[in-house]
Structure formats: structure tokens, C-alpha cells
## 1
Amino acid sequence: MRKKLVSLLAAFGLIAAGLTVMASPAYASACTPNPCYYYAGFRQTVDFDGVSLLLGKENPATDANTWHSLAELTAQDATGANIVEVGWTKDPLVCASGVTVCLFAGIWKNSVFQGHNTNFTNGTGCSPYCIGASLDGITNGTSKALTLSHICDPTCRWWVAFDGSWRFAVADSAFGTGAFTVGKKYQIFGELALKDTSSCADMMNGVLPTGSPTFLGGKANSITLTNGSAAVAPTTVVTDATKWNALMVTGISGRFGGPGNC
């Protein structure tokens, strides 16, 4: 999991002093280290209690050289070592048998990923979108509301709302001494984990983003903050813009994804 962290930190500008970053595998064939990661999306450094958006659900095309293709929302502390992440993934190692695309959630605790769909507790009435739920019944391209919000009731947790209802949460205690009650940065992005750089895996709907008047690509719309210390103003971040790119089309909405140039 440390390899994933190094790739994620490098891609999103969070490399700490003294951390050695392995050379990019972008022009290799087999990924070394394996997997290699690619990203396209949006980020903003700002204080907030909650972050929400309308995120498009897709079923990206993948191949034998793909570990997963996903889209997620994250909230993290100032160091980037403690993170809450939630979104959907196309990953046969995470989704249940017979499910193509599912909800997932996870946390990073002191820079160590704690596993998919662990540490979270389902809320009362979470169905049909409890932890790990299938999203196969949602038409591709449909946008669903997704929120991460820190709420004390009285136990303090990071709660996840999906499609208009609170579904599941992770308690502050899961982070130990790294617990954070205010988000310091949020990120919205697509992620590909590849076995080989020759993979033709799609991100989102497999279309590079465009602005007006066509508005193509995967959707990240109506980004809002709860108790934000500044206005919503994310910037884009990508690791290979010719294959998977991101574009803000308004101050609060963007498009991202791509076909991998295959």
C-alpha cells in the first residue's frame, strides 16, 4: 500500500520532505512498481466541515491490464497523512461477486491505507446504498449527490451521504492520534490502477473533457462546501493529460476522464 501512497502523494502535490519518489513508469511497459496510478481531477486547499458534489456514475471500459478504474471524493487533514475517501469503483477485488460497479470507502491513517470498506459503520436505513452497495442499477452518466461531512451526534464521525441520505460513517477514533475534525483539503478525481502502461482502460465515460457547448466527459458538478473558509475554487490536476484530463467548466463544476488514447 505504500507504493499507492507514494504515487497518490506525487500526483496530488503532497510529497513530504525526505520521501523518495520512484521514477515514473509512464514510458515503460509492465508497471514498476505494480500497479502504477494515473489521476485526473480537482483539488482545493481550504478549511471546511463538509464537501458535496453531484458525481457522475459510469461503467468505464477496462481490460486485463487494469486493476481498477474509479471516481472518488476525499477530505484530508493538513498533513495529507489522514484521509477519508468515498466514491464508486470498478474493481472485482472490492465489489461483490456479480457486481460491476460499487460504492466504496476507506481511510488513510498516518499515511497507511486501512483497507476498502473497513472502519465504517452503516447508518440506520442505509439501504439500498450501504457500504459496498452495487450501483449497477444506476444508468451510466447519471449524477448522484455525494457528501463527506464531519458531524458530532454526540460521537464525532465523518459521515457519507449518497443520493440524498446519510448512509455510513467512520468515527474519529479510527484515526487514533491523527483524528481531524475540520477538512483542510478536498479532492475529486478519477483514478486508474494499471498492471501495464499499454492498458486501454477508460476513466469515467472514456471521453476527454470539453467545455461549452458540448460538455463532454465525466461529471463533477455543483461542488459546495459547508462552513468553508473560502469560496469554492478548485484547480485541476492530471498525470497524463493526453490520455485522461480534467477541465473546470464553471467555478463549481468540471468534467474529467478519458479513453487512454486507445
## 2
Amino acid sequence: MTVIVPEQTHTELAGLYRRGLYLQAYRMAEEIAPLKEWTGADRVMAARLAAHMGAPRLSLWHRLKSWREAPDHPEVKYY
């Protein structure tokens, strides 16, 4: 299953994340799809949220998969 996060939603998630509202960002993300199902460059946000929600293995998995799926994406390169 391919999960595509709308640009506006991604912006809202990033805003919540930057303000330290991790639980609210996580709940918003879960409304789209479980973090485990996120794909492509969106995995970076999934990895960041997973790390703050106490799932370091899921976070690492997303980081590695994002690198394999979208190695040229600027956000993937940065993280």
C-alpha cells in the first residue's frame, strides 16, 4: 500500500513537530495511515515521529527504507 501525505498535511505535521507537539502530530499522522505503512520521502517524518513516540526500531527502519526509496530527495539526504 502506498501512502501519499498531502502537502498541506505534511506542512501541518512539520509545524506540530517543530513546536514539540509530538503526540498531536502522531495522532494526525495515524489518521492518514499507520506509520508502518508510510512510504517514500514521507518516511522521514514517520521516522522522526516514531523516535519520539518510543519506537526506535521503527524509526531506524523508516530511515533506512527512505534512503533506499528516495536517495536523492533533499529531506532524506538531510536526515
